[in-house]
C-alpha cells in the first residue's frame, strides 16, 4: 500500500508538471486565440472591442493569476470554454474521445499481435525467413506515419478497391487507420521481444527444460514467453504515449473526428483551453497506463513481490 500511494503521488506530480509546462509554453507563444480569431481586418473590430473581448476571456489579468485560477478550475473538472468555438472544452473532449479511444485501443492491440508474430517468426521460424523478419522492425520504425496512411489508401482503396474512401461502414473506416497506427508502433515492441526472447533462451533453465524433452512450442509458450514478456510490457506502456502523436497525423490523413483532429484544429487556432485539456488528458492516460504496468510486474514475476516496498 505504501508503494501504491507513493506511485500515486508521483503520478499527481507528473500531471502538475505537465499542466504547468504546457501552460507556460502556450503563454509564451506570440499572440493568442483572441488575436487569431478576432483581429482579422475582415471583421473590422476596433482596438477597444478587441480589448473588451480579451478582458472577457481573462487575457488582461497577470499570468500567475490566470494560471492559479485555471489550475483550480481543472482540479474541479472545469476545463473552460474554447475561444475558437465558444463550446465547453469538456463537451468537445468528450465528443472526440470515443472515436480516439476506439482507434487507440485497436491500434495498440493490433500492434501487439503484429509484434508477437514478427518476434516469434524471427526467432523460431525457418532460417531463410528469420533474416527477413528481423529486418522488419527497423523498416517499420523508419517509415513516417503519414506515409504509411497514404500508401495504404493508395493500395487498398484506389488500386484494389477493397476499402471505400467514401460512404465506408464503421468497420471499414477503422481498418486503414488502425493499420496506420499499428505498423510503426509494432516496431519497438518487436525489437524488445526479439532481444528478450534471445536473452531468456540463453538462460540455464531453458537448457534444462529442453534436455527433458520439451518441444519447441512448449518451451516457447510455457517457459520463454512468460519471462520475455516483462520488458515488452514496459515498452507497450511507454509507446502508448505515441498513440496521441500518431493519432493527430492519422486522423488528419483519414479525416476522422477525434482528439487528434481536435488538437490539430486547436493548434491552428491557438486555442489554449482546448490544448491544455488535451495535454492533461494525454498525460493522465500515459501515467495511468504505466502505473498499471508497474503494478502488474509483481503479479507476473513473483520474484519482484518483495522488492518494491
Report on this model:
It is built from 14 helices and no strands. The longest helix is centred in the middle third of the chain and has 36 residues, at 89-124. It has 309 residues and is mostly helical. Helix content is 77%, strand content 0%. α1 runs antiparallel to α14, α8 packs parallel to α12 (242-254) and α12 crosses α13 (259-269).
List keywords for this structure.
2 domains, 0% strand, mainly alpha, single chain, 309 residues, MetI-like fold
Mean pLDDT: 77
Could you tell me how far the N terminus lies from the C terminus, measured between alpha carbons in angstroms?
Answer: 9 Å
What characteristic shape results from the CA principal axes?
flat
Strand tally, please? Answer: 0
Order of helices and strands: HHHHHHHHHHHHHH
In CATH, the architecture of the largest domain is Orthogonal Bundle
**Helical fraction:** over 70%
Number of domains: 2
Q: What's the CATH first level of the largest domain?
A: Mainly Alpha
Structural class: mainly alpha
Radius of gyration: 24 Å
What can be said about the biggest beta sheet?
A: none
- Strand content is under 5%
Fourth CATH level, the homologous superfamily of the largest domain: MetI-like
Amino acid at each position: 500500500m505504501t508503494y501504491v500511494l507513493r506511485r500515486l503521488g508521483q503520478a499527481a506530480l507528473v500531471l502538475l508538471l505537465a499542466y504547468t509546462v504546457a501552460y507556460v509554453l502556450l503563454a509564451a507563444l506570440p499572440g493568442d486565440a483572441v488575436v487569431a480569431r478576432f483581429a482579422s481586418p475582415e471583421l473590422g473590430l476596433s482596438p477597444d472591442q478587441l480589448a473588451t473581448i480579451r478582458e472577457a476571456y481573462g487575457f488582461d489579468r497577470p499570468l500567475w493569476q490566470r494560471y492559479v485560477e485555471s489550475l483550480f478550475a481543472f482540479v474541479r473538472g472545469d476545463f473552460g470554454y474554447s475561444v475558437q468555438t465558444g463550446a465547453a472544452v469538456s463537451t468537445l473532449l468528450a465528443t472526440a474521445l470515443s472515436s480516439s479511444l476506439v482507434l487507440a485501443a485497436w491500434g495498440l492491440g493490433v500492434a501487439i499481435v503484429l509484434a508477437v508474430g514478427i518476434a516469434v517468426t524471427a526467432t523460431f521460424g525457418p532460417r531463410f525467413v528469420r533474416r527477413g523478419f528481423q529486418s522488419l522492425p527497423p523498416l517499420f520504425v523508419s517509415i513516417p506515419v503519414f506515409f504509411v496512411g497514404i500508401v495504404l489508401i493508395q493500395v487498398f482503396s484506389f488500386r484494389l478497391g477493397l476499402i471505400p474512401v467514401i460512404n465506408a461502414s464503421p468497420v471499414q473506416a477503422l481498418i486503414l487507420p488502425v493499420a496506420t497506427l499499428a505498423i510503426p508502433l509494432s516496431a519497438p515492441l518487436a525489437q524488445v521481444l526479439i532481444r528478450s526472447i534471445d536473452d531468456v533462451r540463453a538462460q540455464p533453465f531453458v537448457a534444462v527444460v529442453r534436455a527433458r524433452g520439451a518441444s519447441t512450442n512448449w518451451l516457447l509458450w510455457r517457459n520463454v514467453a512468460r519471462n520475455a514478456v516483462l520488458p515488452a510490457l514496459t515498452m507497450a506502456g511507454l509507446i502508448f504515449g505515441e498513440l496521441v502523436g500518431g493519432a493527430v497525423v492519422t486522423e488528419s490523413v483519414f479525416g476522422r473526428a477525434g482528439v487528434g483532429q481536435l488538437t490539430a484544429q486547436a493548434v491552428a487556432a491557438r486555442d489554449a483551453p482546448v490544448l491544455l485539456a488535451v495535454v492533461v488528458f494525454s498525460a493522465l492516460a500515459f501515467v495511468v497506463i504505466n502505473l498499471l504496468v508497474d503494478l502488474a510486474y509483481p503479479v507476473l514475476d513473483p520474484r519482484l513481490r518483495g522488492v518494491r516496498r
